TrEMBL record:
Cellular localisation: Membrane
Name under which the protein is recorded: MFS transporter
InterPro entries, sorted: MFS_trans_sf
Membrane topology: Multi-pass membrane protein
Single GO cellular component term: membrane
Bilayer-crossing regions: 20-40, 52-71, 77-101, 121-141, 161-180, 187-206, 218-237
UniProtKB keywords: Membrane, Transmembrane, Transmembrane helix, Transport
Superkingdom of the organism of origin: Bacteria
Length: 363
């Protein structure tokens, strides 16, 4: 449901206040609490004789928190040029190494790392990370494109992004029905294939695209990610015993959140790097000695009532600004298409990993 943030941001900014971006989540917790009260049985609390691994949990949580902050703020602070970001990466890495070592040597580990060595478990963790990475890497491309190229506000791109959010709610029961009659591994592969097809459509992005051009790829992405993520969690749950329930929950949630942050960070990094590369390559072909450049400048100069007569020095500043914007728009478009290619490659990798999954153990 992350794509709904952008249209929600626009609506709240126009009609209420941006504070409601946070209050909406607080309001949604009320029905969740009521559902838990009505569904959780009233059982006596049984005290576990084993000691809790508070130190290990603190080390792991602190380590991931440091890395999460570094990934979230790294692009804004120019990564390792910032002592703060470098320090967060260093401290986070040290804390995670300490966490792993403690879990390996302690008698009562909070997270049973040996669980990751069981058949299929590591593959499923990677698949959870891949689907979250690809989804959050591409979900915001339409809003970035429409804002950068066409100058639209968040409220104006909401209709496009709803084609990702709403179909997930409607299609989820269909996925549940499919899982009752099909091998979950097949549904996972179909989901990744659908997502890869959606990203393939996205690679055809051009500066002429408008909101409607994104709908086919957004709809396929919504269907594919619903199939893939739901099926992965369903199949993953078949590998869980009561002994490893806590480990399962911690691993899945950590992977989901961390991969999501990697996805949102990668789109910013990929766009910045590839936009610079494309801008440089495009700029190599834009010079006053190129006949195509002179023709375009002559056409744009006529908009300002100026005739060049073959003299580049007479080009008005407005015509140069239009040419500069055309180069920037094309570079932005190509960089966002590269993001789709990256996500499509990850989706194809997900299909390959799915083929390596074995049958789930019998209960």
């Amino acid at each position: 449901m992350n794509p709904t943030i952008v249209p929600g941001e626009g609506w709240y900014s126009e009609h209420l206040s941006w504070h409601w971006l946070f209050w909406q989540n607080a309001a949604l917790t009320i029905p969740f609490i009521l559902c838990l009260i009505m569904s959780v049985p009233n059982e006596a609390i049984r005290q576990s004789p084993a000691r809790s691994d508070h130190a290990g949990m603190l080390l792991g949580a602190s380590g991931f928190a440091c890395l999460f902050v570094a990934l979230d703020q790294g692009e804004r602070l120019f990564w390792f040029q910032s002592p703060f970001i470098a320090g967060m990466f260093y401290v986070g890495t040290v804390l995670l190494v300490a966490f792993v070592l403690r879990e390996l040597v302690t008698e009562a580990p909070g997270i049973a790392l040996s669980y990751l060595l069981k058949p299929n478990v590591t593959l499923l963790v990677v698949l959870v990370g891949l689907i979250r990475f690809t989804v959050l890497n591409t979900s915001f491309i339409p809003s970035i494109f429409l804002a950068s190229v066409h100058g639209l506000r968040p409220l104006e791109v909401g209709d496009t992004l709803r084609w990702v959010a709403v179909p997930q709610i409607l299609f989820a029961p269909c996925v549940a029905f499919m899982l009752l009659h099909l091998d979950a591994r097949r549904v996972i592969a179909i989901g990744f294939a659908t997502v890869a097809l959606a990203f393939g459509l996205g690679t055809q992005l051009t500066p002429d695209w408008a909101e409607g051009n994104f709908i086919p790829s957004q709809l396929l992405q919504a269907l594919g990610q619903t199939m893939a993520l739901t099926s992965i969690i369903y199949f993953f749950a078949k590998h869980v015993t009561a002994e490893h329930a806590l480990t399962f929950g911690a691993v899945v949630q950590t992977t989901r959140l961390f991969s999501g942050q990697l996805g949102t960070t990668s789109i910013a990094v990929t766009q910045r790097v590839m936009e610079q590369i494309h801008s440089n390559l495009l700029g190599l072909h834009v010079n006053v000695f190129s006949s195509e450049t002179l023709e375009r400048l002559a056409a744009q100069s006529s908009l300002f009532g100026t005739t060049l007569n073959g003299n580049p020095a007479e080009v008005p500043a407005g015509a140069i600004a239009l040419l500069d914007r055309a180069v920037r728009v094309q570079a932005t478009t190509l960089s966002l298409a590269d993001n789709y290619r990256l996500a499509a490659a990850c989706a194809l990798g997900g299909i390959a990993l799915t083929l390596l999954l074995r049958r789930a153990p019998t209960p």
